[in-house]
Design goal:
Radius of gyration: 11 Å
Low-confidence stretches: none
Mean pLDDT: 78
Number of domains: 1
Structural class: alpha+beta
Shape: elongated
Length: 51
């Protein structure tokens, strides 16, 4: 089943399980929206790969 065109919202996506989940979903074709608790978590998150 294709996931292209589907959207996933991941809370706590700056690290740990949330970040791993966001990367997995993106690799499977989802458009991923990641939520962070603080601006610092956003700054610290790995955005380099653009999943």
């Amino acid at each position: 089943m294709s996931q292209v065109g589907k959207v996933a919202i991941v809370t706590g996506g700056s690290r740990g399980i949330g970040a791993a989940t966001a990367k997995l979903l993106a690799s499977r074709g989802y458009a991923v929206c990641v939520n962070y608790r603080t601006k610092q978590q956003c700054a610290d998150a790995d955005h380099s790969s653009r999943w």
